[in-house]
Amino acid sequence: MRDRLVAAARTAALKAHAPYSRFGVGAAVLLADGSVITGANFENASYGLSLCAETVALATASSAGHLTDAVAVAVIGGVIDANGVPRGVAVVGPCGRCRQVINEAAQLGGRDITVWCAAAEGEAIERYLLSELLPHAFGPSDLGIGN
Ligand code: THU
Description:
- By secondary structure, the chain is α+β, with helices and mostly antiparallel strands.
- It has helices at residues 2-13, 53-63, 96-109, 130-133; strands at residues 23-31, 36-40, 70-80, 86-87, 114-118, 125-129.
- It is globular and about 50 Å long.
- The structure holds tetrahydrodeoxyuridine.
């Protein structure tokens, strides 16, 4: 499952819209039923409006009615080459904002979420729990929502 999720994130990254940073990121969200929803980073000429891959993937999952079904997320990234393919062996982890977005799914789903971090290429894959990446998180429960 881990390798399938990383592969899905790598495929998703091929559709990154990242002409400004030239850094392609792909994310794949594993749902409890085994299905996978993906996203890629979606940049904007007004740089600050850019969306990260994990956020796109989780918003897509939410739009399909599956935000609370997420059990794991894989993220990969790398510098986009002349053919539009992200390259490199440096492992990428979710940015701070994406950790908060993943936490929304984790808290509302009532489970910790596994986060697989990998590179555009190579074998290195690191496994974390969201609770390790974002300890003492603020979330829905602070507002009396969900679990
Ligand atoms: N990016 C992501 O998609 N996810 C992250 O967790 C980190 C950063 C994107 C944002 C921007 O399009 C590019 O990577 C360079 O920062």
